[in-house]
Specification:
It is a single chain. The protein is an alpha+beta fold and 637 residues long. It folds into 5 domains: 83 residues, GIY-YIG endonuclease (3-Layer(aba) Sandwich), CATH 3.40.1440; 139 residues, no CATH class; 126 residues, Nucleotidyltransferase, domain 5, CATH 3.30.420; 152 residues, UvrC, RNAse H endonuclease domain (Nucleotidyltransferase, domain 5); 61 residues, 5' to 3' exonuclease, C-terminal subdomain (DNA polymerase, domain 1, Orthogonal Bundle). Helix content is 43%, strand content 19%. It has 20 helices and 19 strands. The strands form 4 sheets. Strands 12, 13, 14, 15, 16, 17, 18 and 19 form an 8-stranded mixed sheet that branches. Helix 5 packs across helix 9 and helix 19 packs across helix 20.
């Protein structure tokens, strides 16, 4: 079962409120996989994770993929039902098949990114440079309007790439019946064509009364001329325009688009150090209403100052969030007044290019929406406060525990080292850094072993430490920060090697060894020539395990990188007269370098691609004194 390590489901289930609302299930990739409603969130969500509760196979599969969940509290079951429907339409979760609404309302798309734009019907809105109008509830009205637009403004219906393909084919039927100006033939300049497009865009923005008047005039004229078929066609088109005009919205300027914003704040004293000042936490909830429907929400965690009031924090959030927001609605509804309300409204108006109002609802449905946003912000604040407490125990609390075991005043910055090689060839060293219990990857360092030949981990470690602290001594800014303690991956031998280097370079830094048991698991700390036990269920022990795993991972990944680039050296490359073909032949025949070393001259000579002279070179390389020295630490090719 996939689980988020920072989200303990069993703990979060205890915090569910006994309120109606909507719950949202996420998988390990944070994708929404299920949305449901509940009369009582506490009871409904718990049922999914109860072993004795009977679940359908589909729900069982869904629960097995849940990594975390979130919820939105509402005032009634009816509100939860409406919100559930909106969220399902917006996110289309995988396991909501029985609730999915597969109906996609149509848009009118104008391909303004083309030199000679077209007007089309679209079932989804994309970021492709086009302008989208809608969505609409009446597909027939949309099609009729597109047909009308093509007739009124002589918009092309073909899909040719213009002007690149201009003049390659004869004009289509629409040109011959007087409904297209044939830009495909180069008959109309781009500027003239664009003038018609601009008038059409104004029509789609709602300025359609002039066209209705024109059609009305044409209808009356046709009626007087007894052309009832044309009059009926104009009548139907006028009705289509009026119907579509009732719901006309261009993206970004609909009357029913608004953001509902509320803030919750509290102060919590850090449990890891009672002497620390109170830590202030803040959560801002933003509910998004688009086209009159609540389609989603976001929560934002903030770090306010000690003296900041909620209104000040909310004002700062608005200025920062909407500075980079791709869409600014017509209205912002806040749960409290802010001092620079008028200034922010003017600024948002400039950014949007149309009036933006900032409201503080006091009654009615709008006030209820703001209250819902505030309650959800308070819920998230409570939930995340507990999560932050757990995170503090995992990091700062664990660091303090390690410092207490070692008897050190501080272990805020810890460095750990490891060596990786294959039989001594292309040895590499890794240095990782943890600060306040968290990895500081910008300070990680890699070392290619240069001075040591063969598989000598102690000597290799001394080289890494010497190079690291010599550069610190020389004032290298990349190595200038010194650790509070060095954690060696090993016991007495590794610790004494590190202390030897530090003493030679004049550094007084505590060094502890992370001792392992027979199963290669962390057992305790070796410090001042004695092993100090540490509880396996403590946060300090878990942090040491994470550090050991991380330093191994970093060293091994570096070594694999070198190998993948073909940079790992094979001892066979040092043998004179043995090229790539013969090296491969020897490895295919003998499988290992050790077997090649143990083979006689005749055995070597009978291998494919080999002869007696080449076999003699290989034999002498491994058995002469010079060859012995070169072959120490041989590696597989």
């Amino acid at each position: 079962m996939n689980r988020n390590k920072d989200f303990i489901i069993e703990e979060e289930l205890k915090k569910l409120p006994a309120r109606p609302g909507v719950y949202i299930m996420h998988d390990e990739h944070d994708t929404i996989i299920y949305v449901g409603k509940a009369v009582v969130l506490k009871n409904r969500v718990r049922q999914y994770f109860q072993k004795g509760y009977k679940k359908s196979p589909k729900i069982q599969r869904m629960v097995s993929k849940v990594s975390r969940f979130e919820y939105i509290v509402t005032d009634s079951e009816l509100e939860a039902l409406v919100l559930e429907s909106n969220l399902i339409k917006e996110h289309r979760p995988k396991y909501n098949t029985m609730l999915k609404d597969d109906k996609n309302y149509p848009y009118i798309r104008v391909t303004t990114d083309e030199k000679y734009p077209r007007v089309l019907i679209a079932r989804s809105m994309k970021k492709d440079g086009s302008k989208y109008f809608g969505p609409y509830t009446n597909s027939t009205a949309v099609r009729d309007t597109i047909e009308l637009l093509r007739k009124l403004y002589m918009i092309r219906a073909c899909s040719k790439r213009l002007p690149q393909e201009a003049g390659k084919d004869r004009p289509c039927l629409y040109y011959h019946i007087g409904q297209c100006l044939a830009p495909c033939q180069g008959n109309i300049p781009e500027e003239t064509y664009r003038e018609g497009i601009d008038r059409m865009l104004e029509f789609l923005k709602g300025k359609y009364q002039p066209e209705i008047e024109r059609l009305t005039e044409r209808m009356m004229s046709a009626s007087q001329e007894m052309n009832f078929e044309e009059a009926a066609r104009c009548r139907d088109l006028i009705e289509s325009i009026r119907q579509i005009g009732e719901k006309q919205k261009i993206t970004g300027s609909g009357n029913d688009d608004r953001d509902i914003i509320a803030i919750a704040m509290d102060s919590v004293q850090a449990e890891s150090d009672p002497e620390l000042a109170f830590t202030r936490n803040a959560v801002v909830s933003v509910f998004f209403v688009r086209g009159g429907r609540l389609i989603g929400r976001e929560h934002f965690l903030l770090n306010p100052g000690d003296t900041d009031e909620p209104a000040e924090v909310l004002s700062a959030f608005i200025s920062q969030y909407y500075a980079g927001a791709p869409f600014i609605p017509k209205e912002l509804m806040l749960d409290r007044g802010i001092s620079d309300r008028e200034l922010l409204s003017d600024w948002l108006t400039v950014r949007r290019g149309a009036k933006v109002s900032i409201l503080i609802p006091q009654k009615g449905m709008k006030e209820k929406l703001v209250q819902m946003a505030r309650e959800n912000a308070e819920t998230v604040l409570l939930r995340d406060r507990d999560r932050l407490k757990r995170e503090e125990l995992r990091t700062i609390g664990a660091v303090r525990e390690i410092a207490q075991i070692l008897g050190l005043p501080s272990a805020e910055r810890m460095e750990s080292y490891d060596i990786s090689n294959i039989s001594g060839y292309d040895s590499v060293g890794s240095m990782i850094v943890y600060e306040k219990g968290k990895p500081r990857r910008s300070d990680y360092r890699k070392f290619r072993i240069k001075w040591v030949k063969g598989p000598n981990d102690y000597a290799s470690m001394e080289e890494v430490l010497t190079r690291r602290f010599q550069r610190a001594k020389d004032g290298d800014p990349g190595f200038s920060r010194l650790p509070d303690v060095i954690l060696m991956d090993g016991g007495k031998g590794q610790v004494h090697s590190a202390l030897k280097v530090l003493e030679q370079l004049g550094f007084d830094i505590p060094v502890a060894g992370m001792v392992k048991d027979d199963y290669h698991r962390t057992r305790g700390l070796y410090f001042h020539d004695q092993e100090l036990p540490i509880r396996r269920d403590s946060e300090g022990f878990k942090l040491l395990t994470r550090i050991q795993d991380e330093v191994h991972r970093f060293a091994i990944e570096y070594h694999r990188l070198l190998r993948s680039k073909g940079q790992v050296h094979s001892v066979l490359e040092d043998i004179e007269g043995i090229g790539d073909a013969r090296r491969k032949a020897l490895m295919r025949t003998f499988k290992t370098v050790e077997a090649i070393r143990d083979a006689g001259i005749e055995e070597l000579a009978h291998a494919p691609s080999m002869n007696r002279q080449a076999a003699l070179s290989v034999y002498r390389f491994f058995h002469d004194e010079k060859g012995k020295e070169s072959s120490e630490g041989s590696a597989l090719e």
